[in-house]
Amino acid sequence: MILLLCEDDYEPLIGQTFESQEEAYAYCNNYAKCHGYVTRKDRSDTKHGKIVVDLSKSQRNKESSRCECKAHMRITSKKCFDIFPEEWHVTKFVKEHNHELLSFEEMRFLPANRTISQEEEKIILLYKEVGLSVRQII
Question: Do 67 and 98 touch, CB atoms closer than 8 A?
Fold first, then answer.
């Protein structure tokens, strides 16, 4: 699990490793959230063990959110020895964006970040069962 660390010096480094593709994607999402944008998986080629995560584009396929931004991170799987599991390495990172970035406080309004935890969902459903209105639950 990646903790939300929003520090300017906490940037991806070429050669940085992750134990799984999911861990790498979670890191990318955390970094993006701290810097004012959301991520989208661009391509996944499991035959060659490569995944490209495009850090500039939202997860929804909306025409208005596409701005041809070149910011991205490329993560490639490598297996050094047979006795060690594969690792995922950052092989490319382009930080420059061609669009305005959001503040950390504004990030919660993006569709990709509008989620509730399972615990919150259970509480909401309990409130609904006892007859509270949506306004009261909020």
Answer: yes
